[in-house]
Each structure stands twice: as structure tokens, then as C-alpha cells.
Design a protein that fits this description.
mainly beta; eight-stranded mixed beta sheet; YceD; DUF177 domain-containing protein
């Protein structure tokens, strides 16, 4: 539980000043914020500085400020089957309680290591958004459910190769005899 000082001008830092500490007070917001850097898993992610559309509700409760919302962001990456570039969109829901102080988190003030706290009247929504998106990203993104992928023998894209694409496979038990075939024209003429 490291307390840091937030920059009120940072895009993901939100002021809760107008809520005060009055339980029941609420405010809705629909900001569009730039995506943070390194928001990806493997082959897909949200591009840095892409527009993230938020629909959030801030509610003052006894212990702190409850943030509930939905975020929509573009995704860019590549198909895990055919390696073609792909683009799509992700929509995630999140909810997090930002405590006023460690005393409000748990009786006796022993806040958990995952608890989030207000910095005065400011809260940083980036870690909440980051966690929600990273958990929702597909580990093996595909350009379509019917993507056939690449040929394991030659690497050609199977969608482009056609239905007759194939490779002759020799039974490994007969492989040592492969070099013994001799083309003898005299045997065929006789």
C-alpha cells in the first residue's frame, strides 16, 4: 500500500471533489481518454493513445468512492492461426472501491495490498482499466471462427491454397527403401 501523489492533469486521474464525503452523492461521466502504453497480451492489444470511451459512475459511500463503469477500446493484433493482421473492439465492465484511507479499508486500518486509495480527492482509474482489459483479451485471437490457419508442411495460408492442397507423406517404415527405386527402361520395354 504505497501512497503516491497523483498528477491532477494526468488523463486517467479523476477528481472526486464535487462528491465530497457525502454518502449517496453521485456523478456520471463519459470521458474519452488515450489508451495507456503496454496494454497487450501476446498477439493482441490496445494501441497506445487510442481513444478509450468510458461510461463511468462515481458514488460516494461510507468507506470511499465506488467507481462503476464500462470501457470500449479498439484492438489491433494478428490472428494466431494465419498471422493476418486483425482489428476489433473490446468492451469491459469494471467496479472498484477507492478507500478514503487505510482506516476505512478494514477494521484496525490494516488495508490489503490490492486495496486502492484516494490521493486526497483524486483517484487513478488507469490500473482498474488496465486490469479489466488485460483479463478480457483473448490469448489466441483469430480473424474468424472458420480460419483454417497455415499449412504445417509449407506455411502457405490454407484459405488461399485451395481444397486440393496437400503434401505426399511417406510412411516412415518404408523411408529407407525410398532411395532404392531405380528407373530401368530395359525392364519396361521387354
Amino acid at each position: 500500500m504505497t501512497q503516491r501523489t497523483l498528477d491532477p492533469r494526468a488523463p486517467w486521474v479523476i477528481s472526486t471533489h464535487d462528491l465530497g464525503r457525502r454518502p449517496g452523492s453521485m456523478r456520471k461521466m463519459t470521458p474519452v481518454l488515450p489508451a495507456p502504453v503496454d496494454l497487450a497480451v501476446g498477439m493482441i492489444g490496445v494501441p497506445k493513445d487510442a481513444d478509450v470511451e468510458l461510461d463511468i459512475r462515481l458514488e460516494a459511500v461510507m468507506e470511499g468512492v465506488l467507481v462503476t463503469g464500462t470501457a470500449r477500446a479498439p484492438l489491433h493484433g494478428e490472428c494466431s492461426r494465419c498471422l493476418d493482421p486483425l482489428t476489433s473492439e473490446i468492451e469491459v465492465d469494471f467496479q472498484e472501491l477507492f478507500y478514503y484511507s487505510a482506516d476505512d479499508a478494514l477494521p484496525g486500518g490494516a488495508g490489503g495490498e490490492d486495496d486502492l486509495f484516494l490521493d486526497g480527492e483524486l483517484l487513478d482509474l488507469e490500473p482498474v482499466f488496465r486490469d479489466a482489459v488485460v483479463l478480457a483479451l483473448p490469448l489466441s485471437p483469430v480473424c474468424g471462427d472458420d480460419c483454417a490457419g497455415l499449412c504445417t508442411e509449407c506455411g502457405v495460408k490454407l484459405a488461399d491454397a485451395g481444397p486440393d492442397h496437400g503434401h505426399e507423406k511417406l510412411d516412415s517404415r518404408w523411408a529407407s527403401l525410398q532411395g532404392l527405386v531405380v528407373d530401368n527402361k530395359d525392364d519396361q520395354e521387354g
